[in-house]
Amino acid sequence: MSTAPLLDVRGLHAGYGRAEVLTGLDLRLAAGQVVTVIGPNGAGKSTMLNALMGLLPCRGQLLFDGVDLADATLEERVMLGLALVPEKRELFGTMPVEDNLVLGGWRAKKLKVPNWRGELDRVYQLFPRLQERRAQLAGTLSGGERQMLAVGRALMSRPKLLMLDEPSLGLAPLVVREIFRIIERLREQGVSILLVEQNARAALEVADYGYVLETGEIAMQGHAGELAHDPRVIETYLGAARRPQGD
Ligand SMILES: Nc1ncnc2c1ncn2[C@@H]1O[C@H](COP(=O)(O)OP(=O)(O)OP(=O)(O)O)[C@@H](O)[C@H]1O
């Protein structure tokens, strides 16, 4: 590609103490793209996101929007425009919904983005349910509402790249569909998204490009539509599509 990617990861190594989980991962994402990383439990998907966010020590080249992230702290990465919605959502349960959202706006506030509070209206447009429940304590929300709040809070920082760790995890099928509809809408709005998912089918439907991460390495990659039709991906990750052959 002629223009530099928004995110350019080369030879990423990361792990916990002596246990190396990622052993030289390469990944690229162009601005405006939705890129998904699928793979089995324990492959290292969350480890990758945590390393990108600066929550874990790592080695390798990490370029974000042309900036080398090697020595950037978590706060600096947030200021550069990275946002992570972690698997555990990590909301402030004893605070109202709206306060959780406002806290997410500190980057925009610090950057003196004019009318950053207007971001609240955008988030409420995307998630009318959050507006209805703006005064309710976050800890009393349903699983789906908590996920919406976690995504909304990340959007409040006006990120250049939104990283989502298993947004559908633990949610009922109807709510999962709602979450993917929202990802689709964000995509239409031009938000760049790095999506880690176990729900490979839904992830490949919404994404432009996909990577398959297996035991710390990229095993396959390609345009999402092509991956979704690849026999190995179908066999391993889209198993529900298989029809019994009667043997
Ligand atoms: N805090 C930790 N300390 C030590 N090992 C960890 C820690 N977190 C994860 N691991 C190990 O790192 C490996 C990769 O885990 P990771 O959570 O990144 O995988 P994943 O692909 O996101 O899978 P999952 O979908 O289960 O979260 C696993 O073997 C896991 O046991």
TrEMBL record:
Pfam families noted in UniProt: ABC_tran
InterPro entries: AAA+_ATPase (IPR003593), ABC_transporter-like_ATP-bd (IPR003439), ABC_transporter-like_CS (IPR017871), BCAA_Transport_ATP-bd_LivF (IPR052156), P-loop_NTPase (IPR027417)
Residue ranges occupied by any ABC transporter domain in the UniProt entry: 7-240
Coiled coil: none
UniProt xrefs under SMART domains: AAA
Keyword ATP-binding applies: yes
A GO molecular function held by the record: ATP binding
Domain of life the protein comes from: Bacteria
Keywords: Amino-acid transport, ATP-binding, Cell membrane, Membrane, Nucleotide-binding, Transport
Family to which the UniProt record says this protein belongs: Belongs to the ABC transporter superfamily.
Protein name in UniProt: ABC transporter ATP-binding protein
Species per Swiss-Prot/TrEMBL record: Caenimonas terrae
